[in-house]
Design goal:
By secondary structure, this protein is α/β, with parallel strands linked by helices. It contains 13 helices and seven strands.
């Protein structure tokens, strides 16, 4: 098909058109993606997440520039970099400002960089439902590194760990309780922790706090029998300082990303994560497909009728689901 050939030939307009088709969940877009799928699996996917206001977009902007000036051993050219920036959608209009496209406008003149902003469209977890498809298209198009910047929803934003090979969690000093800002699930998904805006007061305290939390996590896991403290862990999560506006700390950040990529390959963890990535993608697609099929199978008005009973407190939500499922079973 001509669209696939154009994407593989490096046609940026064709790639942009394909990404729009994937976002809009058009059948032709998914057919093109299926044809491209054998070409995927080569890119290093890096997720960048953290609370709003931590400077993720500026950090991604700087990191892309650093990646573009970096040539890996044995490579003749710098990495081609794709960026997927997910912005929150309005709960009222469904639209999004797509501000990352504005913040990263200085990357527009680089032919080795492709930036795609996309709205979350109400999806939770920091990503849009079609983010995985967009990433696959960029992978097939030959981008060596794909950066995904998540919405910035805080502790619930852990879907990125199921999508990326390397997850960078960003925080800043002066957020009140820095550990509170990234505790629970989001701390546990980090492969690299970054304290951005490290020129602000309290940066050293923030870094120490994170290091203490990581050490406490190791002890907790050991007490649960999941880790032996006498054995050095294969990958120790580094805590790094950056100042994105000044470009400080990005050599160290890039070194850590490369070290993590090498660790994944050398330890076999890359294959493990790739399997889990595909498992999560299949699970999400099955969930969406079955949900759509279920709703389409209901008699006209049945769902609204049952919903009204829930609102009137005549049925609990659990009873309502049971009634809808019985309707489906009867068919």
């Amino acid at each position: 098909m001509r669209l696939v050939e154009s994407v593989l030939a490096g046609d940026r307009l064709a790639l942009a058109r394909l990404l729009s088709m994937i976002e809009n969940q058009e059948e032709d877009g998914f057919k093109a993606l299926a044809a491209l799928y054998p070409r995927t699996g080569q890119a290093h996917i890096i997720g960048v997440t953290g609370a709003p206001g931590t400077g993720k977009s500026t950090l991604v902007n700087r990191l892309v520039k650093r990646l573009r000036s970096f040539t890996a051993a044995g490579e003749k050219d710098p990495s081609k970099v794709g960026v997927v920036a997910v912005d929150p959608s309005s709960p009222f209009s469904g639209g999004a400002i797509l501000g990352d496209r504005i913040r990263m406008r200085d990357l527009a003149g680089d032919p080795g960089v492709f930036v795609r902003s996309m709205a979350s469209r109400g999806a939770l977890g920091g990503l849009a439902n079609t983010t995985g498809g967009v990433v696959q298209a960029l992978d097939a198009a030959g981008f060596d590194v794909i950066l995904i910047e998540t919405v910035g929803a805080g502790q619930a934003e852990v879907d990125i760990a199921r999508t990326a090979h390397t997850t960078v969690v960003v925080t800043t000093p002066g957020m009140g309780d820095e550990v509170q800002a990234i505790k629970a699930g989001i701390l546990e998904i980090a492969d690299i922790l970054v304290v951005n805006k490290a020129d602000l007061p309290g940066a050293e305290n923030a870094m120490r706090g994170l290091q203490v939390m990581l050490e406490m996590g190791r002890h907790t896991n050991s007490n649960l029998g999941e880790q032996n403290l006498d054995v050095e862990p294969a990958w120790r999560v580094p805590v790094l300082a950056t100042v994105s506006t000044e470009g400080q700390g990005f050599d160290t950040l890039l070194d850590s990303i490369i070290q993590h990529r090498d660790y994944l390959h050398n330890s076999g963890e890359w294959d493990v994560r790739e399997r889990e990535r595909q498992r999560a993608a299949l699970d999400a697609l099955i969930h969406e497909r079955l949900r759509k099929r279920f709703l389409e199978s209901q008699p006209y008005g049945k769902f609204e009728e049952v919903l009204q009973k829930v609102v009137a407190r005549e049925l609990s939500p659990w009873q309502a689901v049971g009634e809808l499922l019985k309707e489906e079973d009867a068919e």
